Amino acid sequence: MIRPVALSPSRRLSCASTESSGKQCVAIPVWVPGAVAEALRFEPSLASVSRFVLEDIELDGYVLNAGHFMTLSTMAAMRDEKVFEAPDTFDIFRTDRQRWHLVFGGGAHRCLGEALAKTELEEGLAALTARIPPLQLNGEPPEIRGHVSVRRVGAMRVHWSIAELA
């Protein structure tokens, strides 16, 4: 089971697949960038992107015809077994991480705010886990809805003990 530890407006940020490794992630800040990158891959906020085909393109033996509208699944791309080893496993120590994260687009459509977004997520997770290390999920993980365009995240309840902070 993946234990959510933080939530940004459009992303569920999971830290680890087990209770013990989750505590290690909290205890070792240098692992936070790996946790953020893996969360973006594992549960992307952008499920798909749509494009208009300007010219005929041959791709893997198929022809994408000019003039057609197509939708590309970010979620499927992030779980491609040709690109990622064990793509359905949440692993903050993944060595097959790509330099340019697909969730931020590519080419002329690449998000200019990628560096800022990743920095905000990393700093937010580091600050949250440093300030409230005993933070735990209270109830079910948030529901992530949508397979087209931007996905929506439901409520997530957390709790912590003040005694554990002392």
Descriptive terms for the model:
166 residues; alpha+beta; Cytochrome p450; two-stranded antiparallel ribbon; 5 helices
Structural class of the helices, strands and pairings? alpha+beta
In whole angstroms, the N-to-C terminal distance is: 29 Å
CATH class: Mainly Alpha
Average pLDDT metric? 81
Q: How many structural domains can be distinguished in the coordinates?
A: 1
CATH-assigned fold name: Cytochrome p450
Reported for the largest beta sheet, the result is: 2 strands, antiparallel
Question: Given the C-alpha coordinates, what overall shape results?
Answer: elongated
Percent of sequence in beta strands: 15-25%
Say which CATH homologous superfamily is assigned.
Answer: Cytochrome P450
Order of helical and strand elements: EEHHEEEEHHEEEEH
Quaternary organisation of the protein chains: single chain
Radius of gyration: 18 Å
SSE layout and pairing:
Elements: E1 3-8, E2 11-16, H1 19-27, H2 32-42, E3 48-52, E4 57-59, E5 62-64, E6 69-73, H3 74-77, H4 114-131, E7 136-137, E8 144-145, E9 152-153, E10 158-159, H5 162-165
Antiparallel strand pairs: 1-2, 3-6, 4-5, 7-10, 8-9
Helix pairs in contact: 2-4
